[in-house]
Amino acid sequence: MSLTDMKCRNAKPGPALRKLSDGGGLQLWVQPTGARLWRFAYRFGGKQKLLALGAYPNTSLSDARQGRDGAKQILASGIDPSQAKKQAKANQNALGATFRGIAEDYVSKLKQEGRADRTIAKIEWLLSFAYPTIGNHPVKEIGAPDILRVLREVEVRGRHESARRLRSTIGSVFRYAVATARAEADPTLALKGALIKPTVTPRAAVTDPKALGALLRAIDSFDGQPSTQAALKLMAFLFPRPGELRAAEWKEFDFDTKVWSIPATRTKMRRAHRVPLPAQSIAILKELRQITGPGVILFPGIRDEMRPISDNTLNAALRRLGYTKDEATAHGFRATASTLMNESGLWHPDAIERQLAHVENNDVRRAYARGEHWDERVRMMQWWADYLDTLKSTSDRIIADGFSSADIRQ
């Protein structure tokens, strides 16, 4: 008698293996453990053989019957269904051993690890340069000259930094292939020094106190979106990475403890970061909350309130204020704060670096320098906000030592 879905669902395990037949060689094996497995029993070359067709209920009765019928068609052509299945799997594995197959597997792993969407997008964008040339090639057949050809195609466009990053990304894919036993070595190691070294151009920043005061006054006169003006002010007072501010959510701010807690998933170094909020920044945030507070994020885009303003919004606002890209950038507020805080001589360099969310390059020093310097950072951030207010209100000149330790709020 043929099986029904109810019979399959209600099949109970016993002390020994039970075989329920559906006819035509299809059987449901009920294991003592409770597992229910589909098997197709057939003869080939004079021998009794079995073909696994999946586990119930993931593989339904209907799916199992289709698998049985397909296996019978293969048998009718004189081919062993078990061998055909092994060959199909081998072909699939061969496809997965191409550079593109392994790269996509690698990207999938990064997603499972919780890497930021922006990071994933950058990696996928870089890999898109490699796919046309080596994407369908088995990784074991790809050598350093093949990869160099890919990198040169990017380099000749003047994108030297992109070529360097692409080499690193391709290397990561190969090291993943080595770790998963699909490649024997990383050929990008042989390309060290083969690319044109990119010219590093620091992001423009205003570091002259008088010029900074003028910039702050210009921001106060900004006649664009109020939320964009608020973002520029907060960049000056808090100097986070622009992306961290653009995507900030209201739930991250605690006005009672005066702390902005940035989750690790949104920081460059993937480490949670706390920012002390001086009084001036809290005032700005409370005004902004009247505008965008009903939403999730502080700075929603115009077209979609669930997506933050774009990367270019703040820099475009600075252009609108008359500052060229060689004079001021949103990211430059970090260099502004770092420069003037260090020049003040009032703050420990480690406190400044910690507030910038920088990671110590020296492994040994990093192992010991784990302190947050929190109390000092709280005083430092309020001092910085007061200092900016002083610069903004002083139109003619700033006396470098006129805002000293005596002005630090305890």
* CATH third-level topology of the largest domain: hpI Integrase, Chain A
Strand content: 5-15%
CATH superfamily of the largest domain: Intergrase catalytic core
Global mean pLDDT: 87
Tally the beta strands. 7
Q: Portion of residues in helices? A: 40-55%
Structural class: alpha+beta
What radius of gyration results from the CA coordinates? 31 Å
Identify low-pLDDT runs: 361-370, 396-402, 404-410
Distance between the termini: 87 Å
Outline the biggest β-sheet.
4 strands, antiparallel
CATH top level class name of the largest domain: Mainly Alpha
What descriptors fit this protein?
about 400 residues; alpha+beta; Double Stranded RNA Binding Domain; DNA polymerase, domain 1; hpI Integrase, Chain A; 3 domains; 7 strands; about 10% strand; elongated
What does this structure look like?
The structure is a single chain. With 410 residues, the chain is α+β, with helices and mostly antiparallel strands. It folds into 3 domains: 5-94, Integrase, DNA-binding domain (Double Stranded RNA Binding Domain, 2-Layer Sandwich); 99-191, Tyrosine recombinase, N-terminal domain (DNA polymerase, domain 1, Orthogonal Bundle); 209-407, hpI Integrase, Chain A (Orthogonal Bundle), CATH 1.10.443. Helix content is 49%, strand content 10%. The chain contains 16 helices and 7 strands. It has helices at residues 5-10, 61-76, 81-96, 99-112, 117-134, 144-155, 160-179, 209-220, 226-238, 242-246, 279-292, 313-320, 332-344, 349-355, 363-368, 374-393, and strands at residues 18-23, 26-30, 36-44, 47-56, 253-254, 259-262, 273-276. The protein starts with a helix and ends in a 17-residue tail after the last helix. Residues 361-370, 396-402 and 404-410 have low confidence and may be disordered.
